[in-house]
Amino acid sequence: MRRADLADADCGIAQALGVLGDWWTFLIVRDVAGGTTRFDALQRELGVSRRALTERLAALVEHGVLRREAYSHHPPRYDYLLTPKGEGLLPVLVALQDWGSRHVMGDGALTATALADSAEARRVRQLVGRRLRRSRCPGTTAATSRGRAGPLDGALSLPRRVRPRRPGTSAGWGNIPGA
């Protein structure tokens, strides 16, 4: 199948690849999700050419994966932020990272521990001191998300649909560390 045929393909994967296109685009979404939202910082972090970054950011905005939010009017400068459509890619990035860590960088084994010099341990160390985006958990109030007691009295409750009826009854449930 030629790339030009993707727009007409009757396949969700082909359609998604028509939007995401190449590996730079995935890395841009990864970095924006991680808090790197400004053009110069993205260019510096990724080492991508300014032209390539400009083209990919414009395409991601056009497809509704990112939105631009002005932080300076003179000269015009923008933060690139994930839209809900872009946030929908996060499980894909997590799955891709897991697959790469397990099967490309590792031996394919699923473990719940990481050696001090492992890729997993390095990724965790990189998170230390990083600021998380403000977000709300479904079913909480704004007061609860700011740390004050609300209907859940500070407890975190997952939606019922993510829990199996009985532990061990869902396929692969026992392979998830901590499940």
What does this structure look like?
The chain is mostly helical. It has a two-stranded antiparallel ribbon with strand order 1-2. It is globular, with a radius of gyration of 20 Å. Helices cover 41% and strands 8% of the residues. The chain has 2 domains: 84 residues, Arc Repressor Mutant, subunit A, CATH 1.10.10.10; 44 residues, no CATH class. About 12% of the residues have low confidence. It has 8 helices and 2 strands. It starts with 11 loop residues before the first helix and ends in a 34-residue tail after the last helix. Strand 1 and strand 2 form a beta hairpin.
Short characterization:
With 179 residues, this protein is mainly alpha-helical.
CATH architecture of the largest domain: Orthogonal Bundle
Query: Outline, from the CA principal axes?
Result: globular
Number of helices: 8
Largest sheet: 2 strands, antiparallel
The overall pLDDT, averaged over residues, is 75
Oligomer: single chain
Low-confidence blocks of residues: 144-164
User: Can you tell me the CATH class of the largest domain?
Assistant: Mainly Alpha
**What percent of the residues sit in helical stretches (DSSP H or I)?**
40-55%
Task: Report the span from N to C terminus.
Answer: 41 Å
Helices and strands, in N-to-C order? HHHHEEHHHH
CATH level-four homologous superfamily name of the largest domain: Winged helix-like DNA-binding domain superfamily/Winged helix DNA-binding domain
Please list the strands of the largest sheet in the order they lie side by side.
1-2
CATH fold naming of the largest domain: Arc Repressor Mutant, subunit A
Q: What's the total count of β strands?
A: 2
User: Structural class per helix/strand content?
Assistant: mainly alpha
Question: How many domains, as an integer?
Answer: 2
Beta-strand content:
5-15%
- CA-based gyration radius: 20 Å
